[in-house]
Amino acid sequence: MRIKHRDQVSAQLINEFNYDNPMRVPTLQKIAVNMGLGEAIDNGNAIESATNDLMAITGQRPFVRRAKQAISNFKLREGNVIGLALTLRGSQMWEFYDRLVTAALPRVRDFRGVSPNAFDGHGNYSLGITEQLIFPEVNFDTSDRVRGLQCNIVTTARSDEEGKRLLELLGMPFSR
């Protein structure tokens, strides 16, 4: 995917947006993957199972996110585990993006494309995945529960138009 960006996508973006310097061409900067674990308060095995799933999906060990303050309505105390997070950069980022676009998203039932409206105004894209089982690396039998995850794709684009075009050229299947 990195080679495709260097050889094909950057040339096409230079022609479309008239960049005077090839260093201004937008590229992927990082991908942040987050998984909320509200059930970790009651179930201690949820942390280990979710960690194993994220390690299989991304190839990197996530770090544990803990509650900063207590909320009595949610039975949450300060310091309780509430989620897992990790940031992918470099070759792991490109490999994850390739697997997401080519292998995982097409496995979603009744898939009609991802929303083109999830940009933040600066060319970054947020994608919510409802179940981790769409990734071929996750074994259905070893997962104790279906969990969702959030992928934030951070680009160097300056506008949503540039970011969307970059992701389109890299194979992101946007709905029409």
What does this structure look like?
This protein has a domain at 2-37 and 86-169: Ribosomal protein L5 (50s Ribosomal Protein L5, Chain: A). It is 31% helix and 19% strand. The protein contains 4 helices and 5 strands, in the order αβαββαββα. α1 packs across α4. The chain is elongated, with a radius of gyration of 18 Å. The two termini are 24 Å apart.
What's this, in brief?
The protein is of the alpha+beta class and 176 residues long. The chain contains four helices and five strands; from the N terminus they run αβαββαββα. The chain has helices at residues 2-17, 45-58, 90-104, 160-169; strands at residues 28-36, 63-66, 81-88, 125-129, 149-155.
Secondary structure elements and pairings:
Elements: H1 2-17, E1 28-36, H2 45-58, E2 63-66, E3 81-88, H3 90-104, E4 125-129, E5 149-155, H4 160-169
Antiparallel strand pairs: 1-3, 1-5, 2-3, 4-5
Helix pairs in contact: 1-4
Give the SSE order as H and E letters.
Answer: HEHEEHEEH
Task: Please mark out the parts with pLDDT under 50 across 5 or more consecutive residues, or reply none.
Answer: none
- Per DSSP, the total helix count is 4
Trace the largest sheet across and list its strands: 2-3-1-5-4
- Under CATH, the topology of the domain at 2-37 and 86-169 is which? 50s Ribosomal Protein L5, Chain: A
What CATH architecture of the domain at 2-37 and 86-169 do you see? 2-Layer Sandwich
Number of strands: 5
Give the radius of gyration: 18 Å
List keywords for this structure.
176 residues; 19% strand; 5-stranded antiparallel β-sheet; 50s Ribosomal Protein L5, Chain: A
